[in-house]
Design brief:
The structure holds two protein chains of two kinds.
Chain A lengths: L1 H12 L1 H25 L4 H12 L2 H9 L4 H20 L1 H30 L27 H10 L9 E2 L3 E3 L6 E3 L6 E2 L2 H5 L1
Antiparallel strand pairs in A: 1-4, 2-3
Helix pairs in contact in A: 1-2, 1-5, 2-3, 2-4
Chain B lengths: L12 H11 L2 E2 H11 L8 H13 L3 E7 L5 E7 L1 H27 L1
Antiparallel strand pairs in B: 1-3, 2-3
Helix pairs in contact in B: 1-2, 1-4
The chains are: A mainly alpha, B alpha+beta.
Chain lengths: 200, 110
């Protein structure tokens, strides 16, 4: 495994030398085969031709051997990358539009996911969020209406379905100054009853 | 060499190339010639399959190589079988024997 990687890296980084060595070895192989044929009376030209037919040509064989190792995959990928960069560099308008599209797409995705994560996926910041329910008062005219504090106290005392109950009230503060009065959102944080803290 | 050379049975190439090397270090052409002689011309390897196999063997540590002069004072890369290569050759030869025996049993049964 390690030797395999080392061999591939050698082919990648000492390409010239590896290629030259392979070329010399293959050339020797084909020459020896041709010599054999010349001994049987063939001319050198005919012998070389016959060898090429029987054993394959130098260049093709070199290519076959080169493309057999894993490093040829790296090499062709690099070639593809270089080619892509060149083409993109030539069409700057297209490149800009493509980049912008990608950027917008990623940005929008990230934004949407942040919201989904916060609102839907992340559990509420309480100990057992799946056992948490919200209770409302209900009457024919106003479904889900606010609870009066005395009612809440009654519920808290006599309800058996809940381990604990807490109440909260939304509460804004009007800020006035030189400009128009403004209900501060920062001050809208609800006031809560004491048991609320025990729930968290 | 009556018939034209036939293709190798798949999976036997490794074994066949390693075998001549078990006797002595050889260069690529030497191995090709030896295989042709020993098979009486049935197997003729092209340079591509041979050298792809050498590259793989060398990376798998089955063979080592060194440049030396041939008897005709030409420079050639000689391949030497390593211990690991010898082990591989033995296990492949054993497995091949098992398969040939099994095939023979099947064919003789009818």
């Amino acid at each position: 495994m390690l030797r395999n990687i080392a061999g591939g890296l050698r082919s990648l980084f000492r390409k010239e030398q590896v290629s030259r060595e392979l070329g010399e070895e293959l050339n020797g192989f084909l020459e020896m085969a041709a010599e054999e044929k010349m001994k049987q009376g063939m001319s050198r030209k005919d012998a070389l031709r016959a060898v090429r037919l029987e054993r394959g040509s130098l260049e093709i064989t070199k290519e076959v051997v080169r493309s057999a190792g894993w490093e040829s995959l790296v090499e062709t990928s690099l070639q593809d990358l270089r080619f892509a960069a060149r083409v993109l560099g030539k069409n700057l308008g297209f490149t800009a539009v493509a980049l912008l599209t990608l950027a917008l797409g990623m940005g929008a995705n990230t934004a949407i996911f942040s919201v989904v994560q916060g609102v839907l996926l992340e559990p509420l910041p309480y100990r057992e969020p799946d056992r948490l329910v919200m209770v409302w008062e209900n009457n024919p005219r106003f479904p889900r209406v606010w609870v009066s504090y005395p009612n809440f106290l009654d519920w808290q005392r006599s309800a058996r379905s809940f381990q604990q109950m807490a109440a909260g009230v939304e509460h804004g503060v009007d800020l006035t100054g030189l400009a128009l009065p403004n209900t501060s959102t920062a001050s809208k944080s609800p006031r809560v009853s004491s048991a609320r803290w025990a729930l968290s | 060499m009556a018939d034209k050379p036939s293709d190798l049975v798949q999976g036997t190439l490794d074994m066949l190339i390693l075998k001549p090397l078990a006797l002595e270090p050889m260069h690529g052409y030497g191995i090709a010639v030896r295989l042709e002689q020993m098979s009486k011309g049935v197997f003729r390897l092209d340079a591509g399959s041979l050298f792809v196999a050498f590259q793989r063997f060398e990376r798998d540590g089955l063979i080592k190589s060194e440049w030396k002069a041939t008897e005709n004072s030409r420079r050639a890369k000689y391949y030497v079988l390593t211990d690991q290569g010898r082990k591989r050759l033995n296990s492949e030869t054993r497995e091949w024997g098992r398969q040939v025996a099994a095939i023979a049993r099947i064919l003789e049964a009818s």
